[in-house]
Amino acid sequence: MTTHTVYRTFHTRERREWVRITPDVEAAVDESGVREGMVLVSAMHITAAVWVNDDEPGILADTLEWLDKIAPPSWKSPANDVARELSPDPGDYRHHRGGEDNGDAHLKNLLVHHQVIVPVTEGELDLGPWQQIFYCEFDGRRPKRMIIKILGE
Amino acid sequence: MTTHTVYRTFHTRERREWVRITPDVEAAVDESGVREGMVLVSAMHITAAVWVNDDEPGILADTLEWLDKIAPPSWKSPANDVARELSPDPGDYRHHRGGEDNGDAHLKNLLVHHQVIVPVTEGELDLGPWQQIFYCEFDGRRPKRMIIKILGE
Amino acid sequence: MTTHTVYRTFHTRERREWVRITPDVEAAVDESGVREGMVLVSAMHITAAVWVNDDEPGILADTLEWLDKIAPPSWKSPANDVARELSPDPGDYRHHRGGEDNGDAHLKNLLVHHQVIVPVTEGELDLGPWQQIFYCEFDGRRPKRMIIKILGE
């Protein structure tokens, strides 16, 4: 059995930003020499996500609009009446009493999940034609770590 | 260490359809001969999900109604005022500018996740009494692939 | 390759309760002797979740308020108008026709997921500074099982 671990640090320019990381995961698998196995790709923070979806700018913009409605940030005005009612009652997240302002990023992390497992077959990421791996930053502008861990042979 | 990989193709009659796949995953584990390990069950498309839940027709119908409200399709009228406000503003998903009409299926995929890991113990799927594995198609009527990958010994 | 399996049974006093289980997962890894690998931590019921998030009372209370709005229980009044419209139409979950009253717990389980994978590096859980593992009970007051399965070497 072989294991191989790679860490990557993101420091996004924007507070919310999607970074396509399929090449990083591929590179880690190449380094490991694993031909058959699984790769765990997991955010090490609770205000970011890792997901597999389409690398199409329209859908990425759609997801941000939608996530802001169902897990509304309180550092900007609610997107509409639904976002207003899904905001904490009354007014602000309890999490913000300690000075934080990223409560929505925690909810988004829970909603879309902080990790994926990608199968490795014959030395390649065994993804479907449209599947791309993304690191999704919900509270950036500071260093945030992610782990890539490969297990196989 | 043993690995074993099985692909399954679904071609559902309905656009949205839930297929119970516990027997497929069991068969793949039997074929592999693995006694202790993990099985990854993962959709290879970004408009379908794999989940573990109850095989009870009521809850399956409940999930579809609910998913259509929080990730509303734009190819039919919004289910109610909440679905209308959770729809993209204004009008339609940006993803649909290229001619697609499955933006909601992408959001549903992110929401309920495209994969599960099932533990294998003593050669059996180590599931709780009510846990059944489902492939959940959100944009079917065409061939869609899923991977079952077993790792263990 | 080493595998090690531990079951834990929860019997929470409250219907909904979050239990921090990082020490349980650490103990299972210690017992296994695994230095490099992965741990699957997975609820064996379809009305509970396992997630990784902050151990901060404010955010935990925020998540419950928010989950009750987007996956509303029908055994208490809807939290507000959004929760009312996200409730099944008309009135109650189809799942409740058989006498159950935990339809919302199924939806919450799908939403925040019933499992996580934690990487193990140099014999330790390889978590970020704020990442804690929680068992999240949505329908307790009865025995519910969870599996911890370690795979590595």
Q: What is the residue-mean pLDDT of chain A, rounded to a whole number?
A: 97
Main sheet overview of chain A? 5 strands, antiparallel
Structural class of chain A: alpha+beta
Number of helical regions of chain A = 4
Oligomer: homotrimer
Order of helices and strands of chain A: EEHEEHHHEEEE
Task: Give an overview of the whole structure.
The structure is a homotrimer of 153-residue chains. Chain A has 153 residues and is an alpha+beta fold. Chain A has 4 helices and 8 strands. The first copy, chain A, has a 5-stranded antiparallel beta sheet, covered by helices on one side. Chain A has a 3-stranded antiparallel beta sheet with strand order 2-7-4. Chain A is elongated, with a radius of gyration of 17 Å. The N and C termini of chain A lie close together (5 Å). The relative contact order of chain A is 0.38. Chains in contact: A-B, A-C, B-C. At the A-B interface, strand 4, helix 2 and strand 5 of A face strand 3, helix 3, helix 4 and strand 8 of B.
Brief account:
Three copies of one chain form a homotrimer. Helices cover 27% and strands 33% of the residues of chain A.
Detail the topology: elements first, then pairings:
The structure is a homotrimer of 153-residue chains.
Chain A: E1 2-10, E2 17-20, H1 22-32, E3 37-43, E4 48-53, H2 57-70, H3 81-86, H4 103-112, E5 115-121, E6 124-125, E7 132-137, E8 144-152
Antiparallel strand pairs in A: 1-8, 2-7, 3-5, 3-8, 4-7, 5-6
Keywords summarizing the entry:
homotrimer, 153 residues, alpha+beta, 5-stranded antiparallel β-sheet, 3-stranded antiparallel β-sheet, 4 helices
